[in-house]
Amino acid sequence: MKALSSLLCTLLVLLCYTSAEAEDKVVVIPLLYGKSVTKISNVIKVAKIGGDFTDPVEAVGSISDASENNPYLVMIGPGVYTLTSNLILKPHISIAGAGEELTKLVGSFQDTISYGPTPGFNVVSGADYSLISDLTIENQGVLDTGGLIYSAGIYNNNCTVTVKDVTVIASGGAHTKGIYNYKSDVTLLNVTSSVLNGDNMSAIENRESIVSLNNSSVSAENGWRLIRVINSSQGSNVTVNNTTVTAMDVADGENHGVSTYNSSIHISSSNIKVSNGKNTRGVTGISSITSIASTAIETIGGQYSIGIDIRKNQSANLFNLNVMPKDGTIADYGIMNYDIDDTMILSSNIQGSSYFSDGNVMIAGSSMTGFIFCNQTSVCLNSYNGKGWELDSNCAEVPPPAP
């Protein structure tokens, strides 16, 4: 994969559009490639009236000479643009709208191919050194329960791309993805990604990718079988910061906020809320490295309501968390650990029961409000249960002395 340092590092787009004169604008875009700065002089206008093109797909398709030293910007004016074919970017071509509320690309694309260079199930495809910014992208698919139909807003395949100040909405299909990243280095800034009314749904799907998600809001609602709002697998490395993750309502299946398999996930300064499903899980990590800091995790409902569910992991570092499972019809678990080498919990409030099956556990400066089961080496320092009783060095309750 290409290093993130070779991304477009500096972007400033000043759009001065009016509804009457969409073609009038001021554009200043310095782009940093390594140590050299290149300004974009190739600007193509798409507008309902007065632009170079009225169709964004035709505008991008007209470009044949984009390169590192000759990048292009396609500026898309206010309006709703209904696409009948996928908008596939090329290397060194960026697109920018007039704002998420003003510029909207809409399509209805579905396909049975889950990944590849041009699968056809998405509205926009990213490309190397491209930036997608300041617009809304919506894929209006048709629900397909239990089938093989894919539907996505943005698809990034084997590329280095930035998505900034963008709203993505995807609905329908059997596998519904807001932003789908495959073998890519992806930076997501100020992104809203929502998936609705699908079978197996993810607002952010990562396979073999390096992904940074910052200052964003991602959600999935009204799933039929499975929701994993942020789903990462196959060696992905994902960082989530200052982001709201919301999962709501699965008719007949599992509901996850963040799910990771054979990957690494680092979450900080975020809020995760999962409600209503057969089981609800805030963060799930399987055969992964999990690090969570300064984050609130709330799970509501289901048979088991589980804040953090970690299995077969190499390690889990949990710092300054507020974990709040509730309303599980069978049980509420703040943390469930199976077959994990090392778990460290520092300065956290963990409600519900906690289950530690294997490996080593260190709990320090924390409140563990429910029953603690440890079938492994455990050490508690300056920690308490829900009654305010101190936990001894083996994490057993120490009742206060009788009055």
Annotation keywords:
elongated, 56% strand, 403 residues, twelve-stranded parallel β-sheet, 1 helix, 24-stranded parallel β-sheet, mainly beta
Describe this structure in words.
The protein starts with 29 loop residues before the first strand and ends in a 5-residue tail after the last strand. Helix content is 1%, strand content 56%. It is mostly beta strands and 403 residues long. Helix 1 (56-61) links the parallel strand 3 and strand 4.
Largest sheet: 24 strands, parallel
Give the termini separation.
66 Å
Question: Structural class, please?
Answer: mainly beta
Query: Strand tally, please?
Result: 40
Rounded to an integer, what's the Rg over CA atoms?
23 Å
Poorly predicted regions:
1-38
What value does the average pLDDT take?
86
Task: Offer a quick outline of the entry.
The chain has about 400 residues and is mainly β. About 0% of the residues lie in helices and about 55% in strands. The radius of gyration is 23 Å and the shape is elongated.
What is the element layout, followed by pairings?
Blueprint lengths: L29 E4 L2 E4 L2 E5 L9 H6 L10 E5 L2 E4 L4 E2 L4 E4 L6 E5 L14 E4 L4 E14 L6 E8 L2 E14 L1 E8 L2 E12 L3 E8 L2 E5 L2 E7 L2 E8 L3 E5 L2 E7 L3 E8 L2 E5 L2 E5 L3 E8 L2 E5 L2 E5 L3 E8 L3 E5 L2 E5 L4 E8 L3 E5 L2 E2 L2 E4 L3 E5 L2 E2 L3 E3 L2 E5 L2 E2 L4 E2 L5 E2 L5
Parallel strand pairs: 3-4, 4-7, 5-8, 6-9, 7-10, 8-10, 9-11, 10-12, 11-13, 12-14, 13-15, 14-16, 14-17, 15-18, 16-19, 17-20, 18-21, 19-22, 20-23, 21-24, 22-25, 23-26, 24-27, 25-28, 26-29, 27-30, 28-31, 29-32, 30-33, 31-34, 32-35, 33-36, 34-37, 35-38
Antiparallel strand pairs: 1-2, 39-40
